[in-house]
Request: fold
Amino acid sequence: MIDLLLTEGTVVTMDQKRRIIEDGAVAVDQGKILFVGSSKEAEVKFPEVRKTINCRNHAVMPGFVDVHGHGGHALIRGAIFDTSNWMAAVTQLYNHYVTDDYWYYEGRASALDHLRAGITTSVCIIGAQQRCDDPVFSINHAKGYSETGLREVVCTGPSQPPWPHKFSRIIDGKRVLMEVSYEQVIESMETVIRELNHSCNDRIRAFVSPFGLLPSTNSSFPTEADVMWAGPTEFDLHQLKEMWRIADKYDTRIHAEAYGGSIYQMHKAGKLALLGPRVHLQHTSGCSFDELQILADTGTHVGVTFQSSTMLIPMLWMGVKTAIGTDGPKLLGNADMFQSMRMTQNKHKDELTFSTNFMFNLPSDRLLEMTTIDAAEVIGWEDDIGSLEIGKKADIITVNLMNPRMTPRFNIIDTMVMLGNGN
Reply:
């Protein structure tokens, strides 16, 4: 007897052949996929099932993988609204005015927002700029997330200099201001990685995640030319060594935001550079063709959102493994991958129009790859999630096709990507 059988659905596998199985079935036992094929074959193969769900008029597909977001925002959103610098405002709030328990409750709220939209795995930086003066923030966030049954990659690390930094803890209802050294933050990050990576039956992982590629770069905007040409500073090299030391010690990966100039500057660090298949960089806004070529040559992975001002189509042509993320729930919206796919497509459709006189629309099937199987590969989890294949984890969602918005359905992928929403 098996645990679960999904029958009579349109199964979108995202496997190597990208099979779409009409009147398809997926069998699950002990959290893993046992069978993907026709409903008739499944009924014969599995006569005894604890629970059967009829998925007629539904697409059955792998859960979305969100490769980039920020913890904290799900409980703030419009609470801070009338400001020209929302990110700076929430960073001040996170660093000085929230309790330790805030991160637990925000983790639960963020997880439910992702679950509502069919996102079963999320990458989450703790804070707007990493809050890493104590492990409790990351650990509490992961606890809240894990209780929903979803997967989370917790990302934390040092923020930008100068050091020491001032942070506050709420103790017995009072705000206590303290100075935190760089060494304390590194120790805290290592504790987070040690305690969380592969925890909760491997539903929680933890990545090394400095705020910005290098301490000397502009962490949110393109790096100035003189800084870029100068190459890494002595402190930059020290931080790169620390990031790789911890990543290697705990066999984990590295995630950081990157902007124009910073990749070229960091590349001068040689083997210490945060580049390669164990690294996924976010946004790459303002990067030059030379920097995109560095990403391609080193096998570095990239995540983008609809807000990323990068050259996405040339990057894909160069062979850079790229995924689409939502940036998480925040002021501008929810964690809705359908919306993110469409907005990313729209942002980049005119990317090469002026030089080629052609408009390049990323096709729906490519967008879906970038939010499922390619996204799983970007974060190094493709052996378990991202597609419906025998032996993989049963991270499965269904999309209700029985509504006027999804009619007519000449092409199921086009219908879902262009007309679906995360409700």
About this structure: The chain is about 35% helix and 25% strand. The chain has a mean pLDDT of 92. The CA atoms of residues 149 and 203 lie 8 Å apart. The longest helix spans residues 100-116.
